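Notebook, student rotation project (T.W.).
Task set for the rotation: take a protein with a known small-molecule partner, predict the structure of the complex, and write up what can be learned from the model alone. Partner molecule chosen: nicotinamide-adenine-dinucleotide. Sequence and SMILES entered below by T.W., checked by me.
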Amino acid sequence: MAGSILKSWVLSSAEGGESLIRVGRGISGAEELVPPHHRNVAVLTQPSVASVAKELADEATTGTAGNVHVVVLPDGDAAKDMGVVADIYERLNRFGFTRDDLVVAVGGGALTDTAGFIAATYLRGVTVTYLSTTLLGAVDAAIGGKTGVNVGGKNLAGVFRHPSRVVVDLDILDNLPRRLLCEGAAEAVKAGFIAEPTIVAAYEAQGLDAPLDVVVPEAIGVKVRTVEADFREGGLRAILNYGHTIGHAVELAAGISHGEAVAIGMVAAGRISESVLGFAEAARQRDIIAGIGLPVSAPGDLDAAEVIRLIHRDKKRDAGGLRMVLLESLGRPVLQYVGEDLVQLGLREIGVGKS
Ligand SMILES: NC(=O)c1ccc[n+]([C@@H]2O[C@H](COP(=O)([O-])OP(=O)(O)OC[C@H]3O[C@@H](n4cnc5c(N)ncnc54)[C@H](O)[C@@H]3O)[C@@H](O)[C@H]2O)c1
Ligand SMILES: [Zn+2]
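Predicted structure of the complex:
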């Protein structure tokens, strides 16, 4: 297939292996995703993109690959379940999978997290490639080698291991419903505020219609550079949690989507940054988030005490208190301990605990 590559990266980590990441148009075929010489290929996918997976499998079958099996997992986070994982292990066994065989993941973040976990653990590791079909998956979940399934809590079981390839075909992302574009835009604009003004400018100018040809490669670039510096999340990788400390608590308390919660969390963190570090663009950030169509305040009347309890339950709290990612200026994140009064200031900014 004659696609065009816009940008590519090699992301390697001493322990996690190496990923070749490619963004382009018309690049979702077997040539990119099914390297030759595998006797068995299992294409794992989710219902909304099963047709994309089947097309890919047909192409691989007529090419050099041996037996190509398509398996459709349950949609969304229902896939990230040990029962589903066990079922796929058994199927791979029935397919006669060996360590030389290949798993291909076609789907959003929930699917790539699950398929990546299966590939990392089955026979102690088989090769896996990802075709990432959501904006959130493309700019976040597929990049960086974190895999995970939900066991009691979200993503509590997982492995750090890069997929050997990640392919992002913007022709597929062009057709995403606006709800999914919004989900990914929250993480993309977050990448912009912590490290890449180009992304911020694109969303500022065009809201949710910001060109994917700009925001996707730039946001992937931010994640690649951050993970390169800190694969196992000991230090710098924490900046990717900008907007997530308060955001995650609001997500749990209000039952809203992750993207909406991160948007709200960034507004709160922006206000705290303004107060502590003189961040001058909190109001601009808020306008850009609103311009995308993402919320800038929490829904309904959330109980501030409950939100604060959830913030403190978050694993990002350590012995020194609550550590948050704040912004000194656009593209200059810092990790800083914040006291209760500042958390409350952030919460008031998003309409939680107004008195
Ligand atoms: N590994 C990481 O570092 C990391 C980072 C962030 C998020 N995540 C995980 O990613 C998941 C969220 O990502 P997501 O929103 O992509 O999840 P998802 O896979 O659940 O996709 C969201 C929805 O979009 C549908 N979909 C997928 N591709 C589509 C397409 N092209 N057109 C229309 N619909 C499509 C899916 O079927 C699903 O219903 C969570 O499980 C989260 O924990 C992982
Ligand atoms: Zn996130």
